[in-house]
């Protein structure tokens, strides 16, 4: 898995025609900001940092200013994806658009952070109380096009407000964290708060005519950028297979007598050891996933 350092100064990388990815250092990994250039210039996600840190210098390298951006979009409101939104809106006047179903989360990201980080208090960091929301300028219904080009799909599972933006001109899905593969080193395994919804999201994306996927991180098993319809199908299939493997593993552990604790640390550690991509310092993300599989009917 590619790692990033807070000392690096990344630039936008051209990943597809007219499409650029800025890999902002985020602990041992990166979190992505996407730029799509065209008749309208679009930013998707804003990382966890103030825009002056990496975004503005990276735009300057492309000969662009923040005023050249027509829309700021989001894939979900976890802090590593919308931490720069408030500054981009209040300091630089960017317009924001999102699905109507995700608007409340964008207005109040702290509420989302509390929901994620307090379910397992002994194994979670404090909620990101410093996050500031924004009022969307444009609310779209699912299937409605932004600027005649970008279509948003509701893709819950990782979290309730997740959405995928599809560039209909290039057939590219900007998925953020909506597909999880085998997780990142910060998670240990794929992280989903709602297993049934995550399965539905994978099925929903599998019937879309997608030529490319751009993820919000470098995910174990698929990477960060997937190109070609065959590779896209393989990546989505891999995500679905991981869900099945986790379920089979957890069922076997329970049958072997691994304790099912209130915060199921023993099960999470065993799953990460057997199937994961690195043991995180805090297990809360894996605990969400394991707990979903422990629910009746969701074991496999």
Distance N terminus to C terminus?
27 Å
- The low-confidence parts are 1-6
Strand order within the widest beta sheet:
1-2-3-4-5-6-7
The succession of helices and strands, N to C, reads EEEEHEHHEHHEEEEEHEEHHH
Helix content class: 25-40%
Helix count, DSSP H or I runs of 4 or more residues: 9
Structural class: alpha/beta
Averaged pLDDT, please? 95
Shape: globular
Rg, rounded, reads 18 Å
Strand content range: 15-25%
Describe the main β-sheet briefly: 7 strands, mixed
List the helices and strands and how they pair.
Layout: E1 13-16, E2 19-26, E3 29-36, E4 42-44, H1 55-61, E5 71-73, H2 79-82, H3 85-90, E6 96-99, H4 103-107, H5 109-117, E7 138-140, E8 145-146, E9 150-154, E10 163-167, E11 172-176, H6 195-206, E12 212-219, E13 223-227, H7 229-256, H8 265-275, H9 284-294
Helix pairs in contact: 6-7, 7-8, 8-9
Brief write-up:
The two termini are 27 Å apart. The relative contact order is 0.13. This protein is of the alpha/beta class and 300 residues long.
Q: How would you explain this protein's 3D organization?
A:
- By secondary structure, this protein is α/β, with parallel strands linked by helices.
- The protein is 31% helix and 21% strand.
- It has nine helices and 13 strands.
- It has helices at 55-61, 79-82, 85-90, 103-107, 109-117, 195-206, 229-256, 265-275, 284-294, and strands at 13-16, 19-26, 29-36, 42-44, 71-73, 96-99, 138-140, 145-146, 150-154, 163-167, 172-176, 212-219, 223-227.
- A seven-stranded mixed β-sheet has the order 1-2-3-4-5-6-7. A six-stranded mixed β-sheet has the order 8-9-10-11-12-13, covered by helices on one side.
- A hairpin with a 2-residue loop joins strand 2 and strand 3.
- The protein is globular.
- It starts with 12 loop residues before the first strand and ends in a 6-residue tail after the last helix.
- Mean pLDDT is 95; it is low at 1-6.
């Amino acid at each position: 898995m590619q790692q990033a350092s807070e000392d690096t100064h990344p630039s936008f990388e051209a990943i597809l025609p007219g499409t650029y990815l800025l890999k902002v250092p985020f602990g041992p990994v990166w979190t992505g900001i996407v730029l799509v250039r065209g008749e309208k210039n679009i930013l998707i996600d804003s990382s966890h940092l103030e825009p002056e840190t990496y975004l503005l210098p990276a735009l300057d390298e492309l000969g662009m200013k923040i005023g050249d951006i027509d829309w700021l979009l989001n894939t979900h409101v976890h802090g590593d994806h919308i931490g720069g939104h408030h500054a981009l809106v209040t300091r630089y006047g960017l317009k924001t658009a999102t699905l109507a179903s995700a608007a409340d989360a964008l207005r109040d990201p702290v509420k989302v952070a509390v929901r994620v980080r307090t379910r397992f208090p002994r194994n979670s960091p404090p909620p990101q109380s410093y996050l500031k929301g924004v009022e969307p300028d444009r609310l779209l219904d699912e299937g409605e096009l932004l600027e005649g080009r970008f279509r948003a799909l509701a893709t819950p599972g990782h979290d309730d407000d997740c959405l995928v933006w599809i560039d209909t001109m290039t057939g590219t899905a900007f998925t953020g964290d909506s597909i999880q593969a085998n997780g990142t080193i910060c998670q240990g395994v794929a992280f989903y708060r709602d297993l049934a919804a995550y399965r539905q999201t994978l099925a929903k994306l599998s019937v879309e005519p997608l030529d490319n996927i751009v993820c919000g991180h470098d995910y174990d098993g698929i990477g960060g950028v997937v190109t070609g319809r065959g590779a896209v199908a393989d990546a989505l299939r891999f995500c679905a297979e991981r869900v099945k493997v986790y379920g089979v593993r957890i069922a076997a552990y329970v049958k072997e007598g691994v304790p099912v604790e209130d915060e199921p640390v023993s099960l999470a550690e065993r799953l990460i050891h057997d199937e994961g991509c690195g043991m995180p310092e805090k297990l809360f993300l894996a605990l969400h996933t394991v707990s979903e599989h422990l629910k009746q009917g969701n074991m496999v």
